[in-house]
Amino acid sequence: MKHCLLLAAFAALLVSRPAAAQDGNKWKPYQFTGNEKYDYKVTMMDGEEKKEGGFSLDLRNKDGEHWNVTVANSNVMKKTQGAEVLMGNLGLGMSPVMFLMNPLYGAFIEQVEMKEGEKMSLFGAGVIKVGKKETIGGRSGFACELTMKNQETQKDEVSWSFWIDTALALPIKSITYEQGKPKFIFELLSYKKD
Fold it and tell me: How big is the chain by its Cα radius of gyration, in Å?
């Protein structure tokens, strides 16, 4: 628990500083350019049950200081479901984008050079590792893992796998784990820039 608090405090310090421009092999999350659209397939594992849906983010330049932002979620739901239909978002009642990428992680990830074999320790609380490039949704990105120590077992576990194309503001694929098993999977189907 104390590692989590230390990590959160350090992340808060980093998040508050202004983000630098996209440079070389480092990734700058959330640095949108506008007039771009991300379409993801979303899979949520609930025990052995698999729920599938979609998530889209469309940002259009409105003027020099604003964007028109459209967020869309698609879900397959039973006709017998009542209020859950209004909640959408795989029945979560919140936007699934929170499971695409935890904003606190961004402060750490932008410090890692995106090249195969690169590692960064998170003050003993975890490690970010950069792997080989893979192609997802027509984009090429580095496969990365965030491992953290399980406080109960004291063993290192993958808590998040993510694939980064440094030219984009969001991961091209993301897997969030719960108790060592995939819980939320986001996979880019397409990215369009006009």
Answer: 17
